[in-house]
Amino acid sequence: MVKQINACNNATTLSNGQTLSEALADRDMLMKKRNLLAAAAAKANEQDYRFTHTEVKMCVTLPIRELQKQIDSLSRSFRELDTQIQAANWTVELKE
User: Fold this and answer.
1) What span, in angstroms and rounded, lies between the C-alpha atoms of 65 and 36?
2) I need a surface site. Which of 44, 77, 84, 93 has the fewest CB within 10 A?
3) Backbone phi, then psi, for 19, in 5-degree steps?
């Protein structure tokens, strides 16, 4: 059955010209990039809890706003591609 699914994914073309297999790989990469940037932004945005004023002060060196814009863009791209993939899943029949 896995071979049938892979063959069907390779034979199915989306409206943007990609095969379903390519779209699935692209969707996975978009989510990985988004998660990496989100983790970096979350870590950089953590509060600095110091016990005394003589300790080393930490400051954020990452551009949080720019990271958030990239995260939003990747999220939008992921949703758009996922919508195309889901539409194909409803319209394409698995050949035996």
Assistant:
1) 15
2) 93
3) -75, 160
Residue 45, phi then psi, degrees to nearest 5: -90, 0
DSSP-derived secondary structure for 65-82: HHHHHHHHHHHHHHHHHH
Number of residues assigned to the chain: 96
Helices and strands (H and E) in the chain: how many: 3, 0
Q: Which amino acid is at 54?
A: T
pTM above 0.85?
Answer: no
Average pLDDT, the chain: 88
Distances (CA, A) of 70 to 29, 62, 75, 77, 87: 14, 13, 8, 11, 26
Name the nearest CA neighbour of 34 among 71, 81, 68: 71
Q: What is the pLDDT of residue 62?
A: 82
